[in-house]
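Ticket #4471: structure export looks truncated?
Reporter: QA, pipeline team
Priority: medium

Steps to reproduce: submit the single chain below to the structure queue and open the exported record.
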Amino acid sequence: MNTAIKIYIEGNVGRRIPRGPSRRARALSRLPVYPVAAYVPFSAENGPYELQDFSLYYTLRFGYPPPKVAFLAYCAWHERTKGVWPNIPPARQHQYEIGEIKASLRIFLDRFFRMSQFKRSCIPNAPKVGSGGSLSPRSDYRAPSDSEATVWLHQLDIVPE
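Actual output as written to the record:
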């Protein structure tokens, strides 16, 4: 070996060789950067999670009309101090007035019946008789692709503010 090469190797053994950015870093640098203010949490736009889940459960599982769902939600959520909360810390024990419940239910009905993601299937429109336990079009749930939320929203108008 040439002495110049030996000196070079001995001087650089254990030294980290600098490289350019990795493929992943280059790919990430090409992604658009969105300002933090553009992010809107689900609950700020669609109402509280617990009211959306409550509405989904009682509408889908039992087929209750909006006035009954609103009444049940009011009975369950109108006063935080009544009843027993199962392993829920006090900071997450919410209470809602009928106006908040009605607004949340209106958003739910519009999103679920008018622009539902569960309507996107090639299965023919047909009723399904069953327990109502799944939202998969291959399973229990069959939503007509041309359904509208107007009937459900008109029923919600019965609920007082």
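Status: closed, not a bug. The export was complete when the record was re-opened. Leaving a note from the reviewer for reference: Helices lie at 3-12, 23-29, 42-46, 49-60, 66-77, 98-114, 150-156.
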